[in-house]
Amino acid sequence: MAITNKDRKQIAAVFSGTCSRKKLCPVKDFMASFSDKWSIYTILLLGQHQKMRFNELRTAINGISQRMLTVTLRALQENGIVARLLYPEIPPRVEYSLTGLGEGLLKQLLQIAKWTEENFETMLKARKKYEKTL
């Protein structure tokens, strides 16, 4: 699939818009906020399960520490991607879910996941080829 002139114009529009006039570039800000593995994995899990408690997320995300999950969930909440619902019970119960904004992001991540599945073997072959050149 070749990059078209329309695609190039869309890319140029991203960089000539707010990125050139303001210090905050939406694309860079998005990538800094959500491109880490923990955020993406958390969004995908919440999309699959709809609602999850903290310990359910921690168990499901192999390798994440309690602190990193806390930081990740707070960042996702701050940006309106995840909602945190606290039930006034004893002991307190907290559930996390995607907001409407988070569901929109999830749909885009699913497109990336589909592309990854379709191209994973090609990427593995490219890695092996690259390793031989070192």
TrEMBL record:
<keyword id="KW-0804">Transcription</keyword>
<feature type="domain" description="HTH hxlR-type">
    <location>
        <begin position="25"/>
        <end position="124"/>
    </location>
</feature>
<dbReference type="GO" id="GO:0003677">
    <property type="term" value="F:DNA binding"/>
</dbReference>
<dbReference type="InterPro" id="IPR002577">
    <property type="entry name" value="HTH_HxlR"/>
</dbReference>
<protein>
    <submittedName>
        <fullName>Helix-turn-helix transcriptional regulator</fullName>
    </submittedName>
</protein>
<dbReference type="Pfam" id="PF01638">
    <property type="entry name" value="HxlR"/>
</dbReference>
<keyword id="KW-0238">DNA-binding</keyword>
<dbReference type="InterPro" id="IPR036390">
    <property type="entry name" value="WH_DNA-bd_sf"/>
</dbReference>
<dbReference type="InterPro" id="IPR036388">
    <property type="entry name" value="WH-like_DNA-bd_sf"/>
</dbReference>
<keyword id="KW-0805">Transcription regulation</keyword>
